[in-house]
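Recall the central idea of this unit: under ordinary conditions, the amino acid sequence of a chain determines the structure it adopts. In this exercise we apply that idea directly, starting from the sequence alone.
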Amino acid sequence: MLLAGGQGSRLGVLTSKVAKPAVSFGGKYRIIDFPLSNCINSGVDTVGVLTQYQPLRLNTHIGIGIPWDLDRNIGGVTVLPPYEKISSTEWYTGTANAIYQNVDYIDSFNPEYVLILSGDHIYKMDYEVMLDFHKQNKAECTIAVMPVPMEEAKRFGIMITDENRKITDFEEKPENPRSNLASMGIYIFNWKTLKEALTAEADQPNLDFGKHVIPYCHKKGAPLYAYEFTGYWKDVGTLNSYWEANMELIDIVPEFNLYEEYWKIYTKSEALPPQYFASTSKVEKSIIGEGTEIYGEVYNSVIGCGVTIGKGTVVRDSIIMNHSVIGVDCELNKTIVAEDVHIGNGSRFGIGDEAENETDPHIYNHGLVCIGEKSVIPEGITVGKNACIFGVTDESDYQNNELPSGKTLNKAGEE
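Accordingly, the structure predicted from this sequence is:
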């Protein structure tokens, strides 16, 4: 069961029109491709994807699961949005509530084990190895954990275990952590145990795994185990961690390798022509998606599919998503450009000194510039750092053709 209903509000304008798991990543993928590919690479062939917030692009992307070989007569992939019931209709209010509302779906397969995943992490993991660990220990619930630096442990749900990795206690975001094993939000349950816990705790508001289900199992004396994962795992929950994870893909020896033969990442691909590099182009250490035309210069960047970068334009340390058009003689520094954006000639981004963002300093920081999808930016505009633009803008929206550092310009309106 893949939880993909989250808004991902800390990604700012990138998720104002699209669910976080459907955000582009690494030039040609979307974030949800990673857990879905892990499933098929691990031999999991029955996947329920729980959607809620802005699900259209996610639903279209997943379709009937053909890219992941999940179009099957029995099992396969099923998209599970909230639905109307006779007595009451409710949104999914918490991670475990979403599972509780789909008990009938799970029951229809009569499973012995249920794997719970988040749709918004970038990692490769063989769930079969975790299941073997679960069976060997005769566990009723196994939680994937990852060692984190002790000083960061207070940000996570922390598991305290004995020498056999049996969980003796756990703390949600503890002030003084007693262990550094952080929960990754990946669980394997015996279905009988999970169903009992969900039914018993069903009335809890915002029914959650960390706050309700796992404490319930622990109190009942069910054997809980921690499975330690040591591979690459990134929660791309903030704009900066999203930018970093993309940049790590283009390291000379990438920490996260998209090119491994035996662990492919599958995605739904459009039928696009190959990349085109004009004689005026120059590209160094970048990922360039299919159908992209480059007439300018690109350094240390991740460029999506069907993008056009005009002559004389220089792009550095940036992410440009699918089908965006960058005019001629532009300059982009540390800029995240969402899908279908149009940038006029001679515009410059990430210029000048940093200033704290005026509306959402906790979202727009680290000197990044963020441009929301379908935005239009006129010619000759200069934009500072920690700035954000969203919507169709024209010259009258900018003073002296400038948006200073730390400013937010949102013309998308509330819908």
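The radius of gyration is 23 Å.
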